[in-house]
Amino acid sequence: MKKDIALTLLLTVATLCACSGGSAASGTPTTPSPQKPSPAQPQPGTAAAWTMSGTVKTEGGEPLAGVEVFADHTAFYNMNAVGKTDAQGRYRIPLAHQPGTWAAGAYYRMKLGAQTFEVRLSPNNDTPFDGSKGAVRDFTFRASDAPAGTVNTYVAHSDVELNYDTLQLTFTPDGPNILGSTKTFTRPFVTGSGIQNVPLGRYQVSASQTLNGARQQLLLSSADQKTFAPRVLAEFHDAGDRYGPTLELFLKNP
User: Pro residues compositional bias: what residue ranges (predicted)?
Assistant: First the structure.
């Protein structure tokens, strides 16, 4: 009987020791195993190896989405990489791991009615870069980059009196022009060259001059509105010749 009691006590003590040891072990803080750091993501505007990145914006800072940006290898024929800008005007293009330098470029496609015009853009920094180092190449679209045409004026008959030094034409877009603008603007006539670099579009046009000391509103007609009026509808037409898109107006005194 005494042996049974002693054995029971011994087992109880052993059990308590085991429980105490397990509790102490689980309460001991453990050092976490070291983890490999995630590769650092390059910050916007920072060059990364074998990558060309950047933004395409207007001169006013507005981002342009859907612009096709490309990098051409300067040594290997037909080796290029292409990407498109996102809603923030940003792009990122991986490059082939080939030694040598790359040159950047972009195409901005603009729509006017059913027509699409392709504008080639050059980067703000057009220096070719080492592909192994990567580069940031930003682009800026300026209003002067937009497709434009020339406005030519003609007299309706030989008796028309024009003072070309004071002649000016006012254009009001009949719907958004190629730049998406509906703002009215006025341009002076330039003898010998007409009015150049007018953004493509459809316009309501008026003309005025100073004749004999008084300001005079002229009458106009165009290929799109042949009846003379103080304000005429006109748009650019491209005959496929070296002159490019032109808008022709015929003028006469009231």
Answer: 31-42
